[in-house]
Write a structure and sequence with these properties.
By secondary structure, the protein is α+β, with helices and mostly antiparallel strands. It contains 2 helices and 6 strands. The structure holds zinc ion (ZN).
Length: about 110
């Protein structure tokens, strides 16, 4: 939230229209909880009327055996190509502030 209001000030925006956040399913953050935290923290800020949009990120793994990058299930980080579970997580555990839409005075 501080990041959002700092950005708005930086761009001399009148208000924040929309905030887009990307959440990986392995981040441990639930969109619902984020939304309620957002509702509380935005009161009295430039983002008071902003809409919060959450986008779920896919889980991606890199196989240490065959080198394939593939999508994986949250509970099963296995290679889609060879079935190995010796994989490295590439994405799915992030919480990213993807986009902030601002309204500027004309
Ligand atoms: Zn593999």
């Amino acid at each position: 939230m501080n990041q959002v209001t700092a950005l708005a000030k930086e761009h001399q925006a009148e208000k924040v229209v929309r905030i887009v956040v990307r959440i990986g399913p392995l981040s441990g953050i639930e969109a619902r909880l984020l939304e309620s935290a957002f509702t509380i923290s935005r009161a009295g800020t430039l983002a008071e009327d902003a809409e919060l949009v959450t986008e779920e990120q896919p889980v991606c793994v890199l196989c240490n055996v065959c080198g394939t990058e593939s999508a994986a299930c949250v509970n099963q980080l296995i290679c889609a190509s060879c079935g190995s579970c010796d994989t490295k997580l590439l994405s799915g555990d992030e919480l990213i502030l993807a986009r902030v839409e601002l309204e500027n005075p004309d």
